[in-house]
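Final report, Chapter 2: Outcomes

The project's central promise was a pipeline that accepts a single protein chain and returns its three-dimensional structure in a standardized token representation, suitable for archiving and comparison. That pipeline is now operational. To close this chapter, we reproduce one record exactly as it appears in the project archive, with the input sequence first and the structure output second.
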Amino acid sequence: MSQLLTPSPRTAGSPGVVESRSIDWVPLSERRGKAWSLFPLWFMSNANVTTLATGMLGAAMGASLLTTLVAIVLGVAVGTVFTAFHSAQGPQLGLPQMIQSRAQFGFRGVALICAVVVFSLVGFNMFNQMLAGEILTMTTGVEANGAWYFLISGLALVLAIFGYHWIHHTQKWLTLLFMLTFGIFTVVALFVAPLDPAQLTFANFNWAAFLVQFGAAAAYALGWAPYVSDYSRYLPPQTRPGKALFYTYGGVFAGAVWLMALGAFIAAVFTSAGPLDGVREVADLILPGFGFWLLIAALPGLISVITVNIYAAAMELVTIVDSIRPIRPTRTVRVIACTIIAVAAYIGAMVSTGDFLDNFGSFLVILLYVLVPWTSVNLVDYYFVRRGQYAIRQIFRPGGIYGNWGWRGLTAYMIGIVAMVPFAVTAWYVGPVAEALGEADLALFVGLAASAIAYVVLGRSIDFEAERRLAAEDKELYGEEAVQFGTAPASQ
């Protein structure tokens, strides 16, 4: 029986100080932790000045503070629903998010979705590095973007290489630091900042500004979905899905709403200030010189979110390579992937101009458009079509029961994309339906519904009995532990 439970040749190996695993299944012997740890992780991932900048988009289009706040709360509430339900998958499957998506998009087909996610995460990290570099320039007086980006990327890369458990521990301590600094700042700022009373009304309300802020908030909260279960996959399978969902939702919602609302407040007080200038000006109103220290306190949060993105994007990159040519997911492979992602974002930040910062809102909208059909397909499959029942070993087998190209998932995804086009609103294109509605962006709801309906219909042809039979055969051949250990080559 012991031979049946021996890890396959593609196994990453035993755990150590530096995380050894990447896209392989996490054995039960390595599962530990509590669901509550997801709250500080996702709270801190959202509690940073990038999130604050996202809350300024409504004000830039002339929306009042009250209008912007309503859009932020509703947008984050909607986007976080999908992220939280993805997080609940991690403890049950013990797999990274996109590896599990092979069941819907196929062994090779999932690489297309992974490429989109890698692109978006590199884009986010470019923006994060620009803000962090600007903080260092503002606080030191030294204009050295290349050096600052290198320092920021290097620190984030080291933490990403150490991996899952180190990231969780770091986020817990940073949550305490953030509560102490930005908590005091937020409370006092409400009393000392000169806010126009008209900002607390729906004066000059327009749907375009409201929906732009709503869409940006929803996209930001939804942006974690493609890799949220990467950070819950080490939890024991006995973890109740409801708890994982609750703590993930609470962390994302609290962090995102707080910082976006703070950004909206600063934009309402200083209408022409950028995110960092606004923070410093409001902080200096509280106490001269406080802005300097508050910006310094914001740096660790930016570095930590860059770390979270590097780690996740490395998972996607390894998945892409493994989907083209199966590889052994060793520690070295993950370290190389993390380094490639960090270097790509560093180079991107170096060659980018201020136009990238100006177009961040449109970047978030595009991110929303490409992720909505994927999240719709994945969640519908997990909760309604296959109901969480997967032949895990088959997920790691080229040409296995899920196929190389999951035509159902890919078709439903493209249907969602096409359905959104007439409703799309970006800086470069406005769909005919959106134009007729005064540039009101309803693409999110259209894409969700179109992909969900299409996948439910197409999913009726899935041979569930064959999948269950293969899972049972693997269990009989390899044992209870090994059947879930989905890293064996097809030849075994």
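Archive annotation: Residues 1-15, 482-492 have pLDDT under 50 and may be disordered.
This record, like all others produced under the grant, will remain available to the consortium after the project formally closes.
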